[in-house]
Automatic annotation (TrEMBL):
<feature type="transmembrane region" description="Helical">
    <location>
        <begin position="73"/>
        <end position="92"/>
    </location>
</feature>
<dbReference type="GO" id="GO:0016020">
    <property type="term" value="C:membrane"/>
</dbReference>
<protein>
    <submittedName>
        <fullName>TM2 domain-containing protein</fullName>
    </submittedName>
</protein>
<feature type="domain" description="TM2">
    <location>
        <begin position="70"/>
        <end position="118"/>
    </location>
</feature>
<dbReference type="InterPro" id="IPR007829">
    <property type="entry name" value="TM2"/>
</dbReference>
<dbReference type="Pfam" id="PF05154">
    <property type="entry name" value="TM2"/>
</dbReference>
<keyword id="KW-0472">Membrane</keyword>
<keyword id="KW-0812">Transmembrane</keyword>
<feature type="transmembrane region" description="Helical">
    <location>
        <begin position="98"/>
        <end position="125"/>
    </location>
</feature>
<keyword id="KW-1133">Transmembrane helix</keyword>
Amino acid sequence: MIGHIESYDDNTQTGVIKFEDKFYEFHIDQWTLDSPPKVGDDVDFDMDDDDTVTEVGPVGAYLKDTRPVKRRWVAVVLGFLFGAIGLHRIYLGFYGLGIAQILVTLITGGYGVVWGFTEAVLLLTGHIYKDAKGRFLK
């Protein structure tokens, strides 16, 4: 099943996965990578018959944490063309910032476009160089 890591505690080495409206606890022994899980990661997990998690691993783009997944030029183009509505931030995984940019643009009557344009320039010059998961941009 595909779930979402809601929490992880390094001290107890346990975490919680959310799948639909249910929560499942797992231990680091069930984690398939060497690096510890991160809150917010999407995971594929297996369970036995009594709803106990047996194996947990990252899904898709998260299989290798250090491998770049998102492209800088796509974010730059989205920033220049649709920066007022935060599409570049949504593309990079910063959903809250994207929604904030939409609200600022609506509240200011369109002047929020300056925020998007500024971030497009920052992306172009390399000052913004990571996505929401901390991976470098291609």
